[in-house]
Amino acid sequence: MYDLFDKFYENVIKYNLINPKENIVAGISGGIDSVVLFDLLVRLTDVMDYSLYVAHINHGVRGNEADRDEQFVEKLSQKYHIPFYSTKVDMNGYAREKKISSEEAGRILRYGFFRKILNDIGGGKIAVAHNKNDQAETVMLRIIRGTGIDGLRGMQFLTQDIIRPILNMKRNELEEYLIENRLEYVEDYTNVETIYQRNKIRLELFPYIEDNFNPNIVDSLYRLSKNAQIDSDALDEIAEKKYNLLVKKIDNNSIIIEGASLNKEVPAIKNRIIRKAIFCLCDDIIDIEQKHIELVADLLGKNMTGKSLNIAKGIVARISYGDLHLELADKQKETALKEKELSIGKNIIEELRLELMIEEIDQKDIKYNLINTKYFDYDKIEWPITLRTRRESDIFYPLGLGGKKKLKKYFIDKKIPQEERDNIPLVCDSNNILWIIGYDISDIFKITNRTQRVLKMQYQKY
Prior knowledge:
Blueprint: H1 4-14, E1 23-27, H2 32-44, E2 51-58, H3 63-79, E3 84-88, H4 91-98, H5 102-121, E4 125-127, H6 132-145, H7 149-152, E5 158-159, E6 162-163, H8 171-180, H9 197-212, H10 217-246, E7 247-250, E8 254-257, H11 259-264, H12 267-282, H13 290-302, E9 308-311, E10 315-320, E11 323-328, E12 340-342, E13 345-349, E14 354-361, E15 373-377, E16 385-388, E17 395-396, E18 405-406, H14 407-413, H15 418-421, E19 426-428, E20 433-436, E21 454-461
Parallel strand pairs: 1-2, 1-4, 2-3, 4-6
Antiparallel strand pairs: 5-6, 7-8, 8-11, 9-10, 10-11, 12-16, 13-14, 14-21, 15-21, 16-19, 17-18, 19-20
Helix pairs in contact: 2-8, 4-5, 6-9, 6-10, 10-12, 12-13
């Protein structure tokens, strides 16, 4: 006799969804899909040694019904002695506050709660009850909104810390399992309301397509998602290698990509590189559509220095000296560096997350091949020395130039983006700039055959 558990167990093993001794937090609403998932996970504890937890979130939109659902899931958990966690949130209030849809607000609050539990119990994965029908609805919704091949992939069995063990099971399979095993569940009336796009697809669009075009539309869209995944994975592998070659600078707030080379890539690869960079910054690309990627690619193609574009998720794209800069809009202004006196030994500059080591060494110990290390004629320095950022009147004597140059002109010649210039650290003595960290030292303080004492400065980010 066919048992849905066999299919479930095959998914767990094939996609490496659950490992021995691992913690699994199951998001259980009390509806058919989640009750079946819960039952399958409980049965799995008989053949696999792992820890199961149940999480339920009351979205605060259905009054007494929502309270009933919470009590139902709690009793279900107690029946099998499974630890139960619940919370109540104001989904609609959060949506208004963040100016996002109720669906997006619910998703953010749910996964935020699930991950808090994971953090409290020492890590693990989150199990959710997305099934084949959900996959078809997701793909159709993305087609309607406008998507590329990545969007057609839909959801995956394993995405970071989220597992979907019943993703390849149709809703009618779950209903049959529920009946055969005499499982109880609760109804959510919002599932039959057509105020949500996903509900409209399930309740109106799919039945119309099934009656007039394709009775197997769910299976067809699921196959489309699998085929798209195969092609997308191959392109991703190529794009990943290109991305690692083209990224010039990356930190928590910004990414700089070599523009000329990126612009030469075919659109399929170029768009993936841009998408990956955006994902690295915001860690969530649910609101990033194909049109946003194409706008960034178009901005790059025009190669207009100083031109910028605000895209979704608070990310700004701009072109500077031919390179593509992607930045978090609310973090573009870095913390201003206050002038700091430096001393022999280790100097910590917290604003820049910079460690600067200063020490006197013998001339025979100089190693000029170290990029982050510079050497100075100790006796030419007028102490104290300080670390600061640029001033309007700054003059610099670049090594090997044989003369002076306004610091502003030096930055322009080095093609340093204007918005970065105020944050570049300068090591200075009483009268001159010794070192523009990350760039040149002053010709005044270079080591010569007359040098008696050597001062070594070495920096590193932390």
